[in-house]
Amino acid sequence: MNKTMCVIGLGYIGLPTAVTFANYGVKVHGVDVNPAAVRSIQEKKLHIEEPGLQERLNKAVDEGYLTASTTPQEADVFIVAVPSPINADKTANLEYVREATKSIVPYLRKGNLVILESTVPPKTVERVMIPELVKSGLDIGTELYVAHSPERVIPGRIFEELINNGRIIGGINKKSAEMTKELYELFVKGPIHLTDATTAELVKVMENTYRDVNIAFANELAKLAEELDVNIWEAIHYANFHPRVNIHFPGPGVGGHCIAVDPWFLVELGGDKAQMIHLARNINDGMPLFTAQKTQKILNENKIAGGKVAVLGLAFKGNVDDMRESPSLEVIHELQQLGLEVVSFDPHIKENNHPTQTQNFEEAVNDADILLVLTDHKEFKEYNPLTITPKHKIVLDTKNCLERDKWKEAGFQFHLLGDSKNI
Ligand code: SAJ
């Protein structure tokens, strides 16, 4: 396809998207306000860990299909893939989307297509982007086309899911949606559904809100199970054999910049019409404290005063290097509030980004009174407990990722979040 493209935002979504379009013959110019992100393309040195990204980036740059700078340039298609976080008061922060939209206005020409990939509250295209795009002087819908095409990829499997997942595309009119579909058909093998922009915005937020509410349900079941002589992981496993049941899994909290964020868009828009969504957020945000209190309870039952906790896992979920919005940081804060000493370790976080963090596993566990597993990194599953010699052989697994029997045979007192059956 001899199209040219300008991708605004070179983060977890923008960079892989820019690289993929470039690998499929589109001449792409990547733009980011952060010079380090621009350099990561120019020098082919990655600022994010994602399987397959390095070789695809090299190919795109070496073949001349991908360039980068801090300023946009004229193109047939503009993709906006910038952060859409929430403020401290949980309201949507759409300033990045607004600024990115403003930045492309001087470069817009008749016939151009602008696509928003960022996950945003419904009505953002209409209320935030269009008012900026009209300043181009182009007639929206006939001279300038606008659509929303949210991504559905999971960090760690981005390229597989970019290609195979279906997409929902919402246009400000039919032609905008169809032009966008034609573009993504370059590499998307999954079904592409067309609708209006607001519906597409809502669909994406619904998908993540469904997951958050479902996880909150699992977390509440885990708290119930703690008093019932039940292992909730076993119970969920059996319940999910029902053809129409898909209960998610409990954990120490919900992290990342998606599942923990997107439901707040609906809470802000819906007010008292979004009570369950709001409650689910509060349940999930309460799990770090619940985890810290369970840790304290185990230490008290073992008559260990004060105590040192070795936190294993700082990333927001297993097998990624992303600590943004990680529940582990909240768990550590709550442990410290309870007066416990904390040392943390994460094999995927290669630099110390937290005061409690060490790069040395032995240093983290050696004189620990309890090991607290907060992410299901594959490395943790492979540890040999016979070689781990903490001060007290006690472990609390919050992700059901350790082999209980292996650890018990090595002399560990084994605890599992949501399990009061196998004490
Ligand atoms: N988690 C649980 N229990 C579960 C599943 C997840 O506690 O059963 C926790 C994880 O540990 C993590 C958080 O929830 O802290 C989010 O995990 P995630 O696997 O949902 O990871 P994300 O946020 O990277 O990806 C989600 C995905 N959305 C859905 O699965 C509906 C992904 O497809 C989206 O593209 C992504 O959000 C996004 O960017 O919106």
TrEMBL record:
MF GO annotations: NAD binding; oxidoreductase activity, acting on the CH-CH group of donors, NAD or NADP as acceptor; UDP-N-acetyl-D-mannosamine dehydrogenase activity
Domain UDP-glucose/GDP-mannose dehydrogenase C-terminal: 310-404
A Pfam family hit: UDPG_MGDP_dh_N
SUPFAM superfamilies linked to this entry: 6-phosphogluconate dehydrogenase C-terminal domain-like, NAD(P)-binding Rossmann-fold domains, UDP-glucose/GDP-mannose dehydrogenase C-terminal domain
Signal peptide range: none
Enzyme Commission numbers on file: 1.1.1.336
Domain of life (superkingdom): Bacteria
InterPro entries attached to this UniProt entry: 6-PGluconate_DH-like_C_sf, NAD(P)-bd_dom_sf, UDP-Glc/GDP-Man, UDP-Glc/GDP-Man_DH_C, UDP-Glc/GDP-Man_DH_C_sf, UDP-Glc/GDP-Man_DH_dimer, UDP-Glc/GDP-Man_DH_N, UDP_ManNAc/GlcNAc_DH
UniProt entry keywords in alphabetical sequence: NAD, Oxidoreductase
Family under the similarity heading: Belongs to the UDP-glucose/GDP-mannose dehydrogenase family.
Listed name of the protein: UDP-N-acetyl-D-mannosaminuronic acid dehydrogenase
Source organism: Ureibacillus thermosphaericus
